[in-house]
Design goal:
208 residues, mainly alpha, TorD-like
Length: 208
Amino acid sequence: MDDDAIYAARLELVDFLIEALWNPPTEEFVESLLSGEIRFPTEGIDDDLDAGFERLRAFIDANEGRPIEEVQTELNREYTRIFVGPRPPVTAHESYYREDMDYLGKGKAMVESSYGAAGWKPPESYPEEADYVAVELAFLRRQIERQRTGAEEAFGYERVFLEEHLTRWIDDCAADVVEYADSAFYEAVGHLLSGVVEFEDELAGQMA
């Protein structure tokens, strides 16, 4: 696999997680998911990524031929139960999971400072706080995108952000997503979330 294909795969996977986590899945997202457009690796990568792809395949196979609206309704209900509540079992914010941060207090400001150092602001379309999982993934995506265009400093920004933020809480959050999932889809999301951060951390450490 050449460099361009690797970048495309990295971006595609992060885009998938952002779409799955920033809001309840849209009808367009579910239709794309069940249409056979998802590309799966032909070889194993690591335990979490392999488990995530296996559960995603299982979800797609189990829902083949079902009406898109029914699948979307079920996923929206599950997303709401897991992430929205009332009393959601998963509060997917860095400042919630880290013991050294106050929830939505100084911890959120620390994340915002990291974004600012790299000259990035969260898109206004994201409805959550700066330390929400989908927003942090969007920052990660931006660094991958910049690396693809030759911005070598983006490797450093990614490495620092992973070391200071994502790697310090994402495994616990991802494990909770897997634990409280009803469907193979959100089990896949949890495993892929942990696997992507681990993969990117190893890669950024080699390249920075």
